[in-house]
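Internal QA ticket QA-208
Title: Verify multi-chain structure generation after dependency bump
Assignee: T.L.

Test input:
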Amino acid sequence: RKEVEQDPGPFNVPEGATVAFNCTYSNSASQSFFWYRQDCRKEPKLLMSVYSSGNEDGRFTAQLNRASQYISLLIRDSKLSDSATYLCVVKGGLDSWGKFQFGAGTQVVVTP
Amino acid sequence: DTAVSQTPKYLVTQMGNDKSIKCEQNLGHDTMYWYKQDSKKFLKIMFSYNNKELIINETVPNRFSPKSPDKAHLNLHINSLELGDSAVYFCATDPKSGVAGARYNEQFFGPGTRLTVL
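Actual output:
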């Protein structure tokens, strides 16, 4: 079983619509959670960290459910520029040199 | 001024050759990483260095040898290249992985080196 699992998509979203997707992780000792964005043939870039109480950054909302071991990302009012692959990242464990574990990504395609 | 740079950007080579990829960061970060992203887009950690010391060494063939001459550089040398080594290799850094308060450290990635082995 992969440590971080994501629905690969693609999620085809009309411009202006809302899209949401989840990511599950297997290590219950994980401490830190992130969403990264990766455009085609580019490097991953941090979109947002995910805090225990959930957090919002503009049109993006992230939630963490520790009991069920998943995090979610919701994008409101989708823009064409939101088309990308969204990588779920889970860090940490009992040791302090927690590795970043990446999911394989969820592809989002926003259409006009 | 690029924060994390990698050279070369593209590398096409024959099976059996030996090649190196270089990474440099000007962020003053202590921790540097090498990741491999294969054709299925899965980004997998290979190595991590903190202050020139190897701290993470995943199950990577010993044909891959990282080297950190100083805190700002982490190079990756690959011997006897195989077809399965074809991938995009990303270098990344973060301020300091192993200290309290580092939970939400962001990782900064280089632009990647696309390696094709023929």
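Spot checks passed. Chain A touches chain B through 23 residues (CB under 8 Å).
Status: verified.
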